[in-house]
């Protein structure tokens, strides 16, 4: 009715005192915080849905202490009730026999898994984490719209929302005594540790994620880092001898507890959906043998059946001897004749739902249907009435939101979160939760998928939640825990390193080519043209985008035309993400692999990657000419060097760091050999060779080193010496090979491999080729062949050895994973 709740007045007064300019500034700061922290959400079916920035309203949803205490009691009552129902459905089934729950409603729901019969967690608490979508009516009454029990999401976003608001509005939070939420996560972590089979002191806990394309993948990675658990995909786990094992570089490591973010029917293709690529074959059998604990247990999606809401009031009185504190939205299950007729007669005033929630089964707002659609829906309900419910359209109360500089009332939902406190045999409720607002007032389909914006949720008043402390049961000397690296994550780190160096070399080469192209327009000449021709062809060899500028035989005419007008080809090499080998394609590969291991990368690293991604997206959306591209490359190289600097400065020297730098070393060696081979093998006239030597040094970031070391003009013998076998130069091949040798030796070894495995032999051969090379022989031109044949032989063999080494690394460490992230499959460069 437009009235302001009493507990809102003080906070709204504080916002009013800030003034609109300050509030909008703080709104931008909130969004900057979230953007820099890499908080994203994926919208299914949206071409721009991958990694969509998370939006947060600077005006929170607010609850008084008195209102929240009642809500908290209601949530604890509700989760206890649902817990008892779950035990009964997969246990004695007395509720089904007494008709307290209709058989048709339970057995026709896809969330009822017969394979889960008689399987339960130790103790009475089966629901370890639970969430409910709540709406506040105009009179302040909280209504439950949905129960989420299968793989509840939102806790990571709630934590990020609170962190951003605390940083931007610290005085507001402190002055209003907003209750803290961190104890919820501590309770959850303690309870998970106590669920380990055999009550291990340091159980291995993993978060099972569907992968980067999932709508809440950010949250999976974020919670993995925050809680200190390993994030795993289905391909990272295997079942052997009745146990679940994590595939790591070192070998198989036993898993004790799995927090699943994969829907239950996708968790085991042997027992459930055979087409699932997200689960683990044999997982259910490991659960039956009580060798692993899955949270929440498989089969609990049956509790998300909206038909249950019609029976909860009577079940609460029967099971718990009390009335339901938090009422559900009025629900009519169509499996009963009277309720079915009511729904059919009132379709236009109800929300119609399938009892099984999925992306295909959307809620249908009856008031938005045409007459033909009403008839069609009615026919479906009459055909299989037990699959449908009708629900009352609840009139939510509104909450203020800042929209385009104006406070506007928006309908809002609250997703609340409850965690089992195993030690206390009770439940703990997060004070607040994750709030979302509608796109516009009166639009009641509130979700991120429909464009809803999130809010932080504040509970005012003194906290009744225990302080964030280590639990007594774990009061002991803390021992370091081995940081396990799944093979799949190791593979992504390896290819992240390779793509990173590929991007760096491509950026440097493109910048030089664009500069030389501009210079050729100003001061055209035979030498300038020859330099540009060699560089353009070298760029094609580096990016492996044949025929490009380097076509031979049937492609020669096409390449000659590109050499006369290189602008379209250069633009394509920079911006065409669909072209394998282009800068945009390599950059996307780098970002995709970084996203797959975001739980392994620091917050500052994500800020850099986010900046790189945003800058490049803006460039792709512009109709950029070569000058614009050149300027963007200057900015991009700064971000890439910042990423390298953080990698060097902040990553722990463990397997993650080693694999990232193994990838970098391999790709650096490949790119350096390619550039030298495509520019220095054939001697040029005049000063062309000197210009090309300068280009090679620039691409290897070694020009300054050369000048300080030799204090002379560019001489081929000095350039080759520096780039091949100066061990102090981080861009020399001998340095890269030595580093590669060291890093691979530090990786976990398979005891069954011979003393000197193939990888070591390849690297040793490469090192010996470089160390035993004679510079005067490499610079010599074979008069009969008219090129530096010794240099060609050395570089082509090095290239081949590095590609073979890469294949062996993949074969030895990543061969069991699904899919490989190869750049190009080639044993050697084509003839130049």
- Number of E-state strands: 21
What form results from the Cα inertia axes? elongated
**Low-pLDDT sequence parts:** 465-481, 817-832
Query: N-to-C terminal Cα separation, in Å?
Result: 78 Å
How many domains is the backbone divided into? 2
Helix content: 40-55%
Radius of gyration, taken over Cα atoms and rounded to an integer in Å: 31 Å
| Beta-strand content | 5-15%
Structural class: alpha+beta
- Count of helix runs: 28
The whole-number mean of residue pLDDT values reads 88
Write up what this structure looks like.
By secondary structure, the chain is α+β, with helices and mostly antiparallel strands. The protein has two domains: 6-329 and 394-471, no CATH class; 492-814, no CATH class. The protein contains 28 helices and 21 strands. The strands form five sheets. Strands 3, 4, 5, 17, 18, 19, 20 and 21 form an eight-stranded mixed β-sheet that branches. It has a four-stranded parallel β-sheet with strand order 7-6-11-12, covered by helices on one side. The chain has a four-stranded antiparallel β-sheet with strand order 13-16-14-15, with helices on one face. The termini are far apart.
Write the layout of secondary structure elements.
Layout lengths: L5 H13 L1 H17 L3 E2 L10 E2 L2 E8 L1 H25 L4 H4 L5 H5 L21 E8 L5 E7 L6 H14 L1 H6 L6 H13 L10 E4 L8 H11 L2 E3 L4 E4 L2 E5 L4 E3 L2 E4 L22 H6 L4 E3 L16 H9 L10 E3 L3 H9 L4 E5 L9 E2 L5 H13 L4 E5 L5 E6 L2 E16 L4 E4 L3 E5 L15 E7 L27 H36 L3 H18 L12 H9 L2 H9 L7 H14 L6 H19 L4 H25 L4 H26 L7 H12 L3 H8 L5 H10 L7 H14 L11 H14 L3 H5 L9 H26 L18
């Amino acid at each position: 009715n437009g009235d302001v709740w009493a507990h809102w007045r003080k906070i709204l007064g504080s916002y009013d005192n800030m003034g609109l300019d300050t509030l909008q500034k703080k709104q931008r700061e909130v969004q900057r915080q979230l953007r820099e922290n890499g908080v994203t959400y994926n919208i299914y079916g949206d071409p721009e849905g991958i990694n969509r920035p998370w939006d947060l309203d600077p005006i929170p949803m607010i609850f008084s202490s008195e209102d929240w205490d009642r809500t908290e009691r209601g949530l604890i009552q509700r989760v206890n009730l649902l817990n008892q129902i779950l035990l009964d459905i997969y246990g004695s089934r007395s509720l089904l026999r007494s008709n307290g729950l209709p058989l048709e409603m339970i057995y026709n729901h896809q969330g009822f898994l017969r394979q889960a019969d008689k399987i339960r967690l130790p103790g009475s608490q089966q629901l370890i984490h639970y969430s409910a979508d709540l709406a506040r009516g105009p009179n302040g009454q909280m209504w439950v719209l949905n129960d989420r029990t299968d793989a509840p999401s939102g806790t990571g976003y709630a934590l990020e929302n609170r962190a951003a608001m605390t940083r931007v509005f610290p005085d507001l939070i402190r002055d209003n005594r907003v209750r803290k939420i961190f104890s919820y996560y501590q309770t959850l972590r303690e309870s998970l540790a106590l669920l380990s089979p055999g009550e291990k002191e340091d159980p291995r806990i993993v978060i099972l994620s569907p992968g980067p394309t999932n709508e809440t993948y950010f949250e999976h990675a974020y919670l993995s880092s925050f809680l200190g658990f390993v994030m795993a995909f289905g391909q990272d786990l295997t079942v052997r001898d009745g146990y679940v094992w994590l595939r790591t570089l070192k070998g198989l490591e036993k898993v004790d507890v799995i927090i699943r973010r994969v829907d239950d029917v996708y968790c085991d293709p042997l027992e459930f959906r055979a087409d699932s690529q997200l689960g683990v074959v044999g997982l259910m059998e490991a659960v039956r043998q009580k060798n692993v604990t899955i949270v929440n247990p498989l089969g609990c999606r049956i509790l998300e059946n909206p038909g249950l809401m019609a029976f909860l009031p009577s079940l609460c009185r029967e099971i718990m001897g009390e009335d339901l504190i938090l009422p559900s939205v009025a629900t009519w299950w169509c499996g009963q004749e009277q309720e079915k007729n009511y729904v059919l007669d009132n379709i236009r005033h109800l929300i119609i739902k399938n009892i099984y929630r999925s992306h295909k089964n959307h809620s249908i707002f009856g008031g938005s249907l045409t007459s033909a659609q009403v008839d069609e829906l009615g026919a479906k309900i009459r055909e299989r009435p037990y699959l449908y419910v009708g629900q009352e359209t609840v009139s939510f109360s509104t909450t203020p939101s800042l929209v385009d500089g104006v406070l506007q009332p928006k309908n809002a939902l609250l997703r609340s979160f409850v965690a089992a406190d195993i030690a206390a045999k009770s439940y703990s409720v997060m004070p607040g939760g994750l709030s979302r607002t509608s796109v516009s007032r009166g639009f009641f389909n509130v979700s991120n998928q429909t464009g809803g914006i999130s809010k932080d949720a504040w509970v005012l008043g003194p906290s009744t939640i225990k302080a964030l402390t280590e639990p007594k049961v774990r009061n002991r000397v803390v021992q370091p825990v081995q940081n396990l690296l799944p093979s799949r994550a190791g593979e992504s780190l390896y290819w992240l390193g390779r793509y990173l160096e590929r991007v760096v070399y491509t950026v440097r080469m493109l910048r030089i080519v664009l500069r030389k192209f501009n210079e050729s327009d100003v001061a055209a000449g035979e030498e300038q043209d020859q330099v540009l021709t060699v560089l353009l062809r070298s760029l094609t060899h580096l990016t492996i985008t044949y025929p490009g500028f380097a076509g031979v035989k049937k492609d020669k005419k096409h390449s000659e035309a590109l050499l006369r007008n290189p602008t379209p080809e250069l633009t394509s090499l920079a911006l065409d993400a669909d072209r394998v080998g282009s800068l945009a394609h390599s950059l996307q590969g780098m970002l995709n692999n970084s996203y797959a291991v975001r739980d392994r990368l620091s917050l500052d690293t994500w800020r850099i990657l986010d900046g790189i991604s945003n800058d490049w997206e803006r460039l792709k959306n512009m109709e950029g000419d070569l000058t614009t591209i050149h300027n963007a490359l200057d900015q991009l190289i700064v971000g890439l060097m910042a990423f390298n600097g953080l990698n060097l400065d902040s990553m722990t020297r463990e397997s993650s760091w080693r694999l990232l730098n193994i990838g970098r070393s391999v790709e650096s060696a490949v790119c350096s050999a390619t550039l030298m081979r495509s520019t220095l093998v054939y001697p040029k006239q005049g000063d062309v060779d000197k210009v090309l030597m300068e280009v090679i040094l620039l691409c290897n970031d070694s020009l300054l080193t050369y000048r300080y070391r030799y204090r002379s003009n560019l001489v081929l013998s000095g350039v080759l010496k520096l780039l091949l076998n100066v061990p102090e130069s981080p861009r020399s091949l001998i340095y890269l090979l030595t580093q590669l040798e060291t890093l691979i030796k530090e990786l976990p070894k398979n005891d069954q491999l011979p003393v000197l495995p193939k990888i070591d032999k390849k690297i040793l051969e490469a090192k010996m080729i470089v160390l035993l090379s004679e510079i005067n022989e490499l610079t010599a031109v074979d008069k009969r062949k008219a090129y530096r044949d010794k240099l060609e032989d050395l570089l082509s063999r090095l290239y081949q050895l590095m590609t073979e080494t890469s294949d062996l690394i993949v074969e030895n460490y990543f061969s069991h994973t699904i899919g490989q992230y190869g750049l190009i499959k080639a044993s050697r460069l084509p003839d130049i």
